[in-house]
UniProtKB/TrEMBL annotation:
GO terms for molecular function: ATP binding; dCMP kinase activity. The gene is cmk. It is found in: Cytoplasm. It holds the Pfam family Cytidylate_kin. Gene3D superfamilies: P-loop containing nucleotide triphosphate hydrolases. It comes from Pseudolysinimonas yzui. The lineage of its organism: Bacteria, Bacillati, Actinomycetota, Actinomycetes, Micrococcales. One of its GO terms (biological process) is pyrimidine nucleotide metabolic process. This is Cytidylate kinase.
């Protein structure tokens, strides 16, 4: 039986993956980063020379994705078939086109089915699932539903700190990606029953604590 489901959505750089991962680890819950699957499919498209805007060709690739994640003490290993793509899916060439893959409706339906199966297969006391449409589409019945936000300038600053100087233009890239993604799923306003957690003025630990408080309140 699936345990407690914690669904977390929000724009790029709001802290979804880092905060969700830390919260899951402290709760002893599983963790599912749905963005990694959209990135993995994008990686496979580029690997096979498929244009990310060629919808039919991208949809056909879902059958070949062979997506698997392996939890380790140092983080999650992401695999496509036998290939470890953990690092490759974070490369700027993937980030630049992942929104094109993610806006294909059939891709979203297929990956949503896969996420639901992964949630159902979890054998821990609970699972933290993060993305853009988890509170609204993937797991609208989750016991805890959070929209994690932060002002755009703060999100850009957080992301810029992660990047090396050759990756200039973070602000423009992040804004463009949010705009493209928001045309497909509304993750800027909380759906009914979803709690908005604004981390603009919170540090990392305070944000994790706020998530843990919301989980405690639902238990
Ligand atoms: N509340 C916070 N205060 C300061 N830095 C944060 C906070 N939340 C996340 N971060 C940092 O911001 C960066 C982006 O967070 P990340 O989890 O990758 O966001 P997302 O998954 O929403 O794109 C990371 O380096 C993370 O450590
Ligand atoms: N539930 C989700 C998760 C990600 N995505 C797409 O996948 C991309 C990468 O997701 P991500 O979570 O790694 O994004 P960031 O953490 O880089 O903001 C997003 O820009 C969306 O286009 C989605 O459409 N729906």
């Amino acid at each position: 039986m699936t345990g407690l489901v914690v669904a977390i959505d929000g724009p790029a750089g709001s802290g979804k993956s880092s905060v969700s991962r830390a919260a899951a680890s402290r709760l002893g819950f599983d963790f599912l980063d749905t963005g990694a699957a959209y990135r993995a499919l994008t990686w496979l498209a580029l690997e096979r020379g498929v244009d990310p805007e060629d919808r039919d060709a991208v949809i056909a690739l879902v059958d070949d994705l062979g997506y698997a994640t392996i939890a380790t003490p140092d983080g999650t290993i992401v695999k496509v078939g036998e290939t470890d793509v953990t690092t490759a899916i974070r490369e700027p060439r993937i980030t630049a086109v992942v929104s094109d893959v993610a806006r294909i409706p059939e891709v979203r339906v297929r990956l949503t089915d896969m996420f639901r199966a992964m949630i159902a297969a979890s054998r821990e006391a609970g699972i933290v699932v993060e993305g853009r449409d988890i509170t609204t589409v993937v797991a609208p019945d989750a016991e805890v539903r959070i929209l994690l936000t932060a002002d755009e300038a703060v999100r850009v600053a957080r992301r810029s700190r992660e990047l090396t100087p050759e990756h200039a233009g973070t602000a423009t890239q992040l804004r463009d990606r949010d705009r493209k993604d928001a045309a497909v799923v509304d993750f800027m306003t909380a759906a009914p029953g979803v709690t908005t957690l604004d981390s603009t003025d919170l540090d990392f630990e305070q944000t994790v604590a706020a998530v843990l408080d919301l989980v405690e309140a639902a238990r």
